[in-house]
Amino acid sequence: MSTQVDTSASGAMGQAGGVLLTDVVTATGLGSQLSAALARWHKPMAVHDPAKVVTDLAVTLALGGDCLADLALLRAEPGVYGRVASDPMVGAHGKVEQPGDHAGLPQLGSDGSGDL
């Protein structure tokens, strides 16, 4: 038995892989931990949890997406991925005021500040 690897330019994985990633996030508790870590960026009247936005972006990348518009892959399957934020809403979550200004973005680290 031999194994062949296809290195052609295509999506990293099929929709089944996106479902598997979503299930792993839920089963491991990563979603709730990420939600807690990003809670300070969740505005009171906001519809979308920042953790869900980050997770949706990660799944989109895994499915071969390379821009915000590729979130349409997930939006096309609301029964599978739930509500997915619009492109402008996702852009607002990661808005940076000036190049090099990362004040609006979560800082990831283990310095005890409550960040990831």
The low-confidence runs, each spanning 5 or more residues with pLDDT under 50, are: 96-101
Rounded radius of gyration (Å): 16 Å
Largest sheet: none
Principal-axes geometry comes out as globular
Order of helices and strands: HHHHHH
Counting H and I runs of at least 4 residues, what is the number of helices? 6
Helix-and-strand structural type: mainly alpha
How much is the average pLDDT?
75
Gap between N and C termini, in Å? 43 Å
Estimated share of beta-strand residues: under 5%
- Share of helix among residues? 40-55%
Give the SSE map.
Layout: H1 15-28, H2 30-37, H3 50-62, H4 72-75, H5 78-81, H6 87-93
Description of the molecule:
The chain is mainly alpha-helical and 116 residues long. It has a domain at 15-93. Helix content is 43%, strand content 0%. The protein has helices at residues 15-28, 30-37, 50-62, 72-75, 78-81, 87-93. Helix 1 (15-28) runs antiparallel to helix 3 and helix 2 (30-37) crosses helix 3 (50-62). The chain is globular. The chain starts with 14 loop residues before the first helix and ends in a 23-residue tail after the last helix.
Give a concise summary.
The protein is an all-alpha fold. It is built from six helices and no strands.
Name the descriptors.
116 residues, 6 helices
